[in-house]
Design brief:
Length: 439
């Protein structure tokens, strides 16, 4: 009996110590709502709490019973000090967890382009900020921006464009994002995942991409293409030209090299000095791309070259004739460049942003430099397919935050040819071209 009493006393002391420890910990309540089970959000949230050295208690959990009904979870997050709790809450905000008790904090920009130290850095996910007890959505959402209040709304603004004294959102409470959710229904990309592999059934994947293009068009959204020079070398330019003339392309974002190789092929039937009819190197062909730049610049640029009959074929010719806007961004490695190229990279970035307005789908075709640049400007809601011969580019896009990009490891010429065939099949919807008016 004495031993039992002693054990009971020890247990009471242990319980007392546990309770006092819990009372000493700071805590915050967060909520999650949506398809948080199907999309793996709940598991990631709980894992992040433990990883950061905190603990959780699920206070309420409701599972959606239909495809349309969302699930809901309310969790109490506990940590041994306020700093750790703040760290956890910031991490969870990027996963869509909302702290419902405090408004977000703002501080003035110190000078033009200089942010307060604790500024919040955006992702490409839809972002909401609690201000005066109400949640407001950030407009013009893209990654790596500050959130600034302008004209009564919250905008994602590049650091260099923030002006002295503007109210800048600080990291911490009152910020939540809406993670990408995997639909419970069968979706176009349901068979694919971000597990990039050469083993995927490519005809099935390309058929799904074609369906996504039709869905994008039916939704009244724009389709933007980001092609690299390999499109020309691989022979994919013929299929891309068919897509442009078929009304499936609303904008092209690329650089000097893509346009030059396309024009060289149209003018001289070579690409980087290699004959596109025989596949053999042409003697002295290394000067052909420079000759093409010279010839096109002489008449005033790509549009003039097409309109004057100098360039009669190719992708750039089709873009001009179909009235599809294009933006060519310069880089340090450019030869020439063509007069159409924007050499100022910041101005080129702004032109890319304008050209992406209203985009619902983006195809990144064998382009590393410009694909990553465009990925940084896309909201996560824009369905993105990245096609390349190696896994490195799709993986790099995902690592840099473009997690919605689905990678397909294959020859870009094959991809474009199959895609054009899919979109030419009987029963496909007639494309309703949705383009910007700017040139």
């Amino acid at each position: 009996m004495a031993r039992q009493a002693a054990r009971a006393g020890t247990a009471r002391k242990s319980d007392s110590r546990s309770q006092s420890t819990l009372l000493a910990m700071v805590h915050e309540t967060v909520t999650l709502e949506g398809h948080i089970i199907d999309s793996d959000v709940l598991r990631r949230v709980l894992g992040k709490v433990v990883e950061e050295g905190a603990s959780f208690e699920i206070e309420e959990f409701r599972v959606g019973r239909t495809n349309e009904e969302p699930s809901y979870a309310r969790l109490s997050i506990r940590a041994d000090d306020p700093e750790r709790l703040d760290r956890v809450l910031v991490a969870l905000s990027y996963l869509g967890a909302a702290s419902s008790v405090r408004d977000a904090q703002f501080a003035p920009a110190e000078a033009d382009g200089i942010l307060p130290d604790e500024f919040y850095s955006t992702t490409n996910l839809a972002t909401f900020v609690r201000s005066a007890g109400k949640w407001e959505e950030v407009v013009e959402q893209r990654m790596d921006c500050a959130v600034v209040r302008r004209a009564g709304a919250l905008h994602a603004v590049k650091q260099r464009k923030v002006r002295r004294g503007e109210a800048v959102l600080l990291r911490g409470a009152g910020v939540r994002v809406r993670p990408l959710e995997r639909s419970r229904q069968a979706s176009t990309f349901g068979f694919m995942s971000n597990e990039i592999s050469m083993e995927v059934n490519k005809p099935v994947a390309i058929s799904a991409a074609a369906r996504a293009l039709r869905e994008t068009r039916a939704a009244g959204e724009r389709i933007v293409i980001v092609p690299g020079p390999a499109v020309i070398h691989s022979g994919g330019d013929a299929a891309l030209t068919r897509l442009i003339r078929g009304g499936w392309v609303d904008g092209v974002l690329s650089g000097n090299a893509f346009a030059v190789h396309d024009l060289e092929k149209a003018l001289l039937r070579t690409s980087l000095g290699v004959c596109q009819m025989s596949g053999r190197a042409v003697e002295g062909g290394s000067r052909n791309h420079l000759w093409a730049i010279n010839a096109v610049n002489r008449v005033g640029g790509i549009r003039a070259a097409v309109e004057q009959g100098l360039v009669l074929s190719g992708v750039m010719c089709a873009l001009v004739q179909q009235g599809v806007p294009f933006v060519l961004a310069g880089s340090i490695r450019d030869d020439g460049p063509l007069v159409d190229v924007i050499p100022d990279v910041l101005k080129a970035q702004e032109a890319y942003v304008e050209a992406l307005e209203g985009a619902g789908m983006c195809l990144m075709l064998a382009s590393a430099l410009h694909a990553i640049a465009v990925g940084n400007l896309l909201a996560a809601r824009v369905r993105t397919v990245c096609v390349d011969m190696t896994e490195a580019l799709p993986v790099k896009l995902g690592n840099r935050g473009t997690t919605q990009a689905i990678g397909l490891v294959t020859d870009v010429g094959y991809f474009l040819e199959r895609l054009a065939l899919e979109l030419d099949t009987p029963g496909s919807v007639e494309p309703q071209v949705v383009r910007q008016r700017h040139r």
